[in-house]
User: Fold this.
Amino acid sequence: MTDEHQHDERPVDGRARLLRALRRPGSGQAVAAVLLAVLGFAAVTQVRSNGRDDAYVGARQGDLIQYINSLDLASQRAQTEITRLERTREALGNDTQARRTALARAREQAVTLGILAGTVPAVGPGVRVTVSDPTGGVGTNQMIDGLEELRDAGAEVIQIGDTKDPNHTVRVVAQTSMQDTAGGGIVVDGKVLKAPYVIDAIGDPHTLATALDFTGGFISEVRGVGGKVSVDELDQVRITTVRTPPTPDYAQPTTSR
Amino acid sequence: MIAAIGLLVGVLLGLLLQPTVPVWLDPYLPIAVVAALDAVFGALRAFLDGIFDDKVFVVSFVSNVLIAALIVYLGDKLGVGGQLSTGVIVVLGIRIFSNVAAIRRHVFHA
Amino acid sequence: MVDDRGTPRPGTGLLDHLTATSLDEDYAHVSERRAAAGSSSRGRPGTAALVVLAVFGVLVATAALQTARNAQQSASSRESLVRQVNAGNADLAQRRTDLADLRHEVSVLQSQQLAATSEGRALGQQLDRLGVVTGAAATRGPGIQVVVDDAPHPSSDKELVQAGDLQKLVNGLWLVGAEAISINGQRLTALSPIRDAAGAITVNFRSLTAPYTVSAIGDRKSMGARLLDTAGGQTWLTLESTFGMKFDVESKDTMVLPAARRTSLRYAHMPESTQPPHRDGSGVGGGQ
Assistant:
């Protein structure tokens, strides 16, 4: 170690030099200090400006433009709905019309909910999906997937049936559940269905058909377990199976009349 | 010095006239500037070394700019425009640094 | 490393070569030639050099101006785009709030009007019943709440909750008698898909993030135990024990499940009518 109190002795190693510089700053250090200060300021400014508030820093202009367009579209749709409801509100507020309007609306809603609940038959464009299962490999895994894919593609009403027995059809609703059985076949809402299965769905025929057909989708899954799927796009699908929904024991509307 | 005045005149002309650059030329402008910068610093170093020559300067300037632009243009056509222009900038940058270091030695005896 | 003429000897690097040859050799050559030819000029810039320097000046100025112009343009156009996006988001949010308020108002008015006639009252009750069962109306009741989540330090997709896992769970819940189900506030209806999309699970076409709270109204005493006997329950017990994914079942005295947002039909209609039912996504009876 060098003795720092002897001014004429130059420190030999780097660490000693550093210590000496720290204890006795020279004019050279002042210049270095100024330059380092400038560097530090610039660095901080740069880092700050990089991390600034712009939430869309990564997005390219094309993406931003697309996003703006989709926002506009959603806003427009919301606005149309608002205008429509405002007219309805007016009609409901107008004494002479109010009752009639309310009844008409309620009747329409009852039809819609009736179709959704499966209490009334329904018709419309759609697809008929026939699933053959010679090896018995098709089970709830594939069928649940297929159901979700149909719903994802906008299927509004679905019915699953058994080609062997026309009485064996099930109207699919929100509460529809499936189970595998030991003896082949699938139990849907308590009914045993055996292959070949027929699934009727109302919606846009082409969208429904394409939704089942992508890589890893229903059709390829069924093929993977040894079955086969054929899809027919139809102008009219008639779903006639109805059900009586059980009265809920536990669930109640939040508003009671 | 007259040379510096010449440079200044050029800069002023550029700022005053504000020529609009045609769109197809726009991507080559930065590369052209760097290539020209390399030629200018080379000339300055040559001048300080005492071996400056007019013709060599003109030729080096023009050829640097044209070749740099040509390489980038070729790169764009081949689809590797970005990479080639990076390479050109790297080489030119090293040369500029090296020339400036030599100039610095002349000027500051540092 | 290099010889007199700057030619690299084998084994020297590119950088060394570049540094050594950075000054055009031509200067040296021409200067030698001039010295050999006896001319004494010490290398002063002539008119040609001045012209070139002026051109250089113009080039630099033009490039600088052009860059400044471009930067201004792109910065301002990007800024304006970001501003538009923010404005669009705010606008949409405002409209959606207005829409929700309007829907509520209309449904209250409708209830009042229906209560005035006997047909109206019957319809109202029917809508209530159907609303609970279809998911169109906000629903209240006891039941169980199942919370599932990804593994704590997932190292692969298998340790993340997948749509298929949620589908099986929901299937199991319906099987043991659930009357109404919602996932993270999304009410399940006959139209509700549960899908994987872009790394997130979407229900009712809305992106959800883990953890997933699946609320099922039903018999709170027995559903939980019977769920574990279903294929869905078994799947989740396995996921829990194998990957440490969360699978908590809790019984609840009361839960409120919101109404589904979309209950309108575009393609399906009843056989005797020639028109699809009125597009009415406003929900029934106080629901949102």
User: Anything to note?
Assistant: The mean pLDDT of chain C is 85. Chain C touches chain B at residues 15, 18-19, 22-24, 26-28, 30-31, 34, 42-63, 65-67, 70 (CB under 8 Å).
